[in-house]
Design a protein that fits this description.
alpha+beta, four-stranded antiparallel beta sheet, two-stranded antiparallel sheet, 6 strands, 42% helix, globular
């Protein structure tokens, strides 16, 4: 059964909420303004733990965070906030966290993301393949 735009939007909201909540915990723990600056200054290590439930690992322009059994992998947005995603990251989030049976492939998600961007529910980040919640 195909996934609907409204279902994808709800998953994007969950992705965004998880990314922001986990990032805020790391920011508070290390006392930094944002994750990229904390990492650049080496105040935040490349990978680590915050409490018993949260593990993180920085990579390239983003971060992978596991909170309990759930994992989110995002890129940083131009303003250094978490939550940047593309069709591949969203596919991975759905599959890794078993959010729906038979997760849609990235090439199935891309047109849905484009439609959601046309409605204003999400925004494309510049000329990149990244999107963010509007």
């Amino acid at each position: 059964m195909p996934i609907h735009d409204a279902d994808v939007l709800e998953i994007v909201r969950r992705f965004n909420e998880m990314a922001h909540h986990a990032a805020s915990q790391i920011i508070a723990h290390y006392g930094v303004a944002n994750l990229p600056d904390g990492r650049k200054s080496r105040t935040i290590p490349k990978n680590g733990r915050v409490g018993d439930e949260l593990e993180f690992e920085f990579h390239g322009k983003g971060c992978r965070i596991q909170v309990g059994p759930l994992t989110v992998d995002f890129d940083f947005l131009p303003d250094s906030s978490p939550g940047g995603f593309d069709a591949w990251r969203l596919h991975w989030f759905i599959e890794e966290n078993r959010l729906v049976p038979n997760p849609p492939e990235p090439d199935e998600l891309r047109p849905i993301l484009e439609r959601l961007a046309m409605t204003g529910a999400i925004q494309q980040v510049g000329t990149t393949n990244l999107f963010q919640l509007a």
